[in-house]
């Protein structure tokens, strides 16, 4: 029948039966039983609430003491106005749900959900988030049985400021790839990195244009030894314009900074624990380790020679060809023509840029950019100490470059990449640190020794190190010995300062 009337544009008007002089057949085939129109509502809902009597009684008492809910109860019982503007301002959020609002045994329900009085909303938010589930899971739990205006926003704010959830959280999604700008010539930009293999220390120096790298055996990892090896490379290939390294102590020392000034090159350091910033050197370290392991019983220098003459898949030329503009002679029989310089640098640049673009496209499929942080933002910093899975509260003090920030945490300054920071809605109040367990004098705490991947420095203004409200106003008294020793993050036992421990002998 529906298919038959699709060809017609029918307009239907309602008419009462007494106005229809020629009634249809169905209007006369009525049911003999009298019909009743009933209004249904949820009844005895309170008896099905799976909570204890004490908690139910508390909920009823809090509802009775809540002026807004009492006004809402009166409105439900007497009837809602036709216009929301006729309601008090405290009841307008309930106007859209007026058909679902009921009163049962002193409690107000929206459908099957209890309307929570304002004095119990904090308690309910704590109960909903008792297992420290995510925002979506907690909202689903709350929407099943609880209701109050703005409940979703209140729960989101409560969870976003949860100390436990912000301390123990998962890592950020990787950010999109930012390839280094391709140098215009060989040895213009180089990367340096150290590694250890079989108890021996090595240094790899990589050219960013050609991927040609040199490996050096180090007697130790001091700055003087590293500088000595780099000077030998500079004597052969010239002084680079840019040298990239991590924040190891040998690269952040004053001796190395003086070396950079003397040989007129810019020294750039990557953020701690962000090896991608010096990915060229990190990739060379990976290759060097594999070559040294596999050729432990053979001639390792011959292996390095052969690797430098192996064409890469990206350009079809070898690192030696891109660096020297020619092949270097190996043990393979090679004609004199192949050993002549004939590499076109412009063509190599185009191939390398195309390879960089392809790498970025593939990497960015599972990455996204994080929003920039501003000075003064409260963040959580990811720690990389073994066994330390917590995210520590910190404050952004400076933006160093596109994705590197200087932050302050526990009285020390750190440098971190954006991927290791999470913005939080918490206040900027500092966390209790280990050295707050005892009274300390009004002076900055000692700066911990920097490691190869993390540098902590003491800020110059003392006000930043120790906020004024945390400094003792009264004279510092000698601290009593603690029964339970307190340790710092590095495992060092905190020793309380001994003040006024001298012996005064009066003159006789």
TrEMBL record:
GO terms for molecular function: nucleic acid binding. GO terms for biological process: DNA integration. Gene3D superfamilies: 1.10.340.70, Ribonuclease H-like superfamily/Ribonuclease H. Residues 179-349 form the Integrase catalytic domain. Residues 423-497 are annotated as: Disordered. It comes from the Eukaryota. Residues 426-437, 476-487 have a biased composition (Low complexity). This is Integrase catalytic domain-containing protein. It comes from Littorina saxatilis.
């Amino acid at each position: 029948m529906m298919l038959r009337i699709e060809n017609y544009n029918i307009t239907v008007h309602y008419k009462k039966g007494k106005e229809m002089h020629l009634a249809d057949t169905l209007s006369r085939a009525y049911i003999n039983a009298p019909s009743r129109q009933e209004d249904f509502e949820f009844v005895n809902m309170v008896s099905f609430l799976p909570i204890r009597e004490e908690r139910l009684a508390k909920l009823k008492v809090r509802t009775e003491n809540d002026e807004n809910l009492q006004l809402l109860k009166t409105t439900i019982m007497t009837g809602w106005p036709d216009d929301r503007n006729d309601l008090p301002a405290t009841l307008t959020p309930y106007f859209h749900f007026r058909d679902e609002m009921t009163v049962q045994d002193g409690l107000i329900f929206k459908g099957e959900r209890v309307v929570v009085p304002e004095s119990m909303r904090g308690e309910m938010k704590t109960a909903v988030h008792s297992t420290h589930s995510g925002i979506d899971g907690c909202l689903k739990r709350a929407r099943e049985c609880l209701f109050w205006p703005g409940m979703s926003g209140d729960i989101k704010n409560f969870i976003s400021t949860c100390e436990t959830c912000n301390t123990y959280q998962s890592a950020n999604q990787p950010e999109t790839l930012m390839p280094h700008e391709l140098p215009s010539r060989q040895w213009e930009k180089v990367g340096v990195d150290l590694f250890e293999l079989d108890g021996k220390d090595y240094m790899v120096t990589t050219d960013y244009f050609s991927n040609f790298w040199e490996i050096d055996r180090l007697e130790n990892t001091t700055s003087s030894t590293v500088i000595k090896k780099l000077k030998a490379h500079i004597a052969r290939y010239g002084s680079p314009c840019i040298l990239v390294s991590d924040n190891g102590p040998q690269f952040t020392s004053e001796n190395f900074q003086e070396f950079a000034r003397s040989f007129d090159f810019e020294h750039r350091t990557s953020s701690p624990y962000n090896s991608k910033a010096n990915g060229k050197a990190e990739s060379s370290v990976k290759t060097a380790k594999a070559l040294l392991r596999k050729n432990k019983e053979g001639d390792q220098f011959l292996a390095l020679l052969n690797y430098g003459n192996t064409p890469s898949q990206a350009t079809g030329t070898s690192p030696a060809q891109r660096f020297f503009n020619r092949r270097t002679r190996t043990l393979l029989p090679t004609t004199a023509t192949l050993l002549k310089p004939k590499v076109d640098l412009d063509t190599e640049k185009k191939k390398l840029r195309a390879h960089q673009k392809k790498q970025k496209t593939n990497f960015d499929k599972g990455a996204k950019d994080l929003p920039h942080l501003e000075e003064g933002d409260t963040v959580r910093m990811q720690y990389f100490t073994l066994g330390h899975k917590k995210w520590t509260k910190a404050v952004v003090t400076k933006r160093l470059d596109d994705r590197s920030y200087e932050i302050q945490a526990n009285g020390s300054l750190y440098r971190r990449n954006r991927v290791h920071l999470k913005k939080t809605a918490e206040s900027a109040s500092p966390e209790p640190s280990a050295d707050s367990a005892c009274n300390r004098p009004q002076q900055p705490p000692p700066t911990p020794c920097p490691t190869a991947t993390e540098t902590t420095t003491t800020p110059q203004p003392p006000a930043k190190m120790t906020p004024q409200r945390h400094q003792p106003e009264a004279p510092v008294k000698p601290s009593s010995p603690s029964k339970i020793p307190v340790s710092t993050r590095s495992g060092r036992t905190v020793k309380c300062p001994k003040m006024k421990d001298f012996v005064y002998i009066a003159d006789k």
